[in-house]
């Protein structure tokens, strides 16, 4: 459902949605797997903000957890642990912030060329 929502929004603003949808999928999956959002009655919220003509912020807000989002070094045999590395590769920048107590928002900035699958040479916005 979140993917369809973001795809619709990006289409409305005239951007291709491939990388942004993959980033959203990783952030939403992490929220469900690693936070209280994955428990019965839990929620996530998705926010897409067009900051300017070439920059979009994709954000997933969760119900909080006992830990913070961190990059992991997954081994070849690990079944998971690569999601934020993927986000780091596709986004111009990513991070997190607390709001409303333990709740957390994890965000990724996507530039227009990254949304079209053509990230600039140095990844600058």
TrEMBL record:
Pfam families in alphabetical order: HATPase_c_2
Record's keyword annotation contains Nucleotide-binding: yes
Residues that span the membrane, as ranges: none
Keywords on record: ATP-binding, Nucleotide-binding
Keyword ATP-binding: yes
Domain Histidine kinase/HSP90-like ATPase: 16-102
Cited InterPro entries: Anti-sigma-factor_SerPK (IPR050267), HATPase_dom (IPR003594)
MF terms in GO: ATP binding
Name of the molecule in the record: ATP-binding protein
Lineage: Bacteria, Bacillati, Actinomycetota, Actinomycetes, Streptosporangiales
